[in-house]
Structure formats: structure tokens, C-alpha cells
Amino acid sequence: QVCAQLCRRPCYCPWVPPRCPRGSPLVLDGCGCCKVCARRLGEPCDFLHVCDQNQGLVCDYSSAPAGTGGTCNFEDDEEGCEVNGRLYRDGEVFQPSCKIQCHCLDGGFTCIPLCQEDVRLPSPDCPFPRRVEIPGKCCPEWICEGAQEQPLPRDARAAPGAVSPLLRYPCPPWGTEWSACSATCGLGFASRVSNQNRLCRLETQRRLCSAGPCPALPAALPA
């Protein structure tokens, strides 16, 4: 009955097929007559304007009033993820916001942060660091505000786990391993990143190293 009302025979189609938006292929309409742009996820659909079956979409009439069109959605038996009222396909990667990226998998989803989760410790030039939201930028940034710089005592030392006279709280040791010696023979230097200093700030440290004596140069021949 629907076909008899909506489908005209013979078919009368435009000479030039429609230009579809990116990601929407040309398919036959519900009458199997003319080429139309397949409807994508969340777009309106009806008997003539079909959804993209290659993406597993069907016309969902469950939330539409009787006699009206539906909305392209995934089939109920296909696993997906619903986030903030939107359904994502299994295996789809999406960003609910600019700060996180998520991956839909087996009916659930996992997310990773896109903003750097670094920590800035107080220092003489920035005794009170604070992380704030910057207008026009997605990720928060560190700013310095508050007190004046404090003079650095000459005899100040911060041993691992000790209380720094500037920080006034225990400084947990953190650092990388010493790198390989920069020279293949003779004296060179090795480097590492460590916070074991009186300011408890990450810095690159160097020390001398020896990779063994260099081979003797051949003696010059007499002129």
C-alpha cells in the first residue's frame, strides 16, 4: 500500500544525480527507482529517503509521532555506546569535548585526556603557581601570581625527602637514570633529569665520565 502511494511507475528521475555531502553515498531510494543521498546517523529519514545501510543504519520510528518520518540510527542488536544522548558505533573514535578522546568498544568506552596533566612546583620566580582556564583555549595553563621572590640562602640544601627552606614541605625525589657516556674513549659527560636540588625543581644535571683510555696515535715518521 505504501509503495502504491509513494512510488510512481515508470520512474521519473532527474538527469543529473544529486551531489551528496562527504560521507553520504548515492543509493537507490525506497522505491528502488532513483538515486538519492543516503541519510547519515541522526538525520531524518522515511520510506523514500533511506539510511546508509553500509554503516548499519536503519530508519528508527520509535521516538517519532505516528505518520511522520524517523531518524537514522543503529540497529538495536548492534553493540554501541551512548554518550550524552548520542549513539556511537562499536570501534568508533570520538571526542565528547576538546579535552578528551574516547573509543567505543564492546558496548563500553574508554577515554584518554588530550590536555597535558603536568604539575608545576613552587619556585623562587613562581612561588604560587595556579592552573587556570584561558579564554579561547581548550586546555588550562599554569600562571604565576602572589608573593614576591624570596632570597635564596647560600647554605640552603634539600636532601632527598627533606623540607626545603623555600618550599616548606617534603620534596619527593624524582629523576631519570644517568645517560651513557658521551665519549667512546677518554673523558666525556653523562646527563640526567632530577629534582634533587635546593629548589626541588626539575633540571638537567651533568657529571664527568670516562669510557677508558683512547688508543695511542701512531708515531709520526721522521721527515
From TrEMBL:
Any transmembrane segments, and where?
none
Start and end of every VWFC domain?
A: 79-145
Q: Which UniProt keywords apply?
A: Disulfide bond, Secreted, Signal
Protein name according to UniProt: WISP2 protein
InterPro entries given for it? CCN, Growth_fac_rcpt_cys_sf, IGFBP-like, Insulin_GF-bd_Cys-rich_CS, TSP1_CCN, TSP1_rpt, TSP1_rpt_sf, VWF_dom
BP terms from Gene Ontology = cell adhesion; positive regulation of cell differentiation; signal transduction
Keyword field contains Disulfide bond:
yes
Q: Which GO terms describe its molecular function?
A: heparin binding; integrin binding
- Please name the gene that encodes this protein: Wisp2
| Chief site of localization | secreted
- Which PROSITE patterns does the record cross-reference, listed alphabetically? IGFBP_N_1 (PS00222), IGFBP_N_2 (PS51323), TSP1 (PS50092), VWFC_1 (PS01208), VWFC_2 (PS50184)
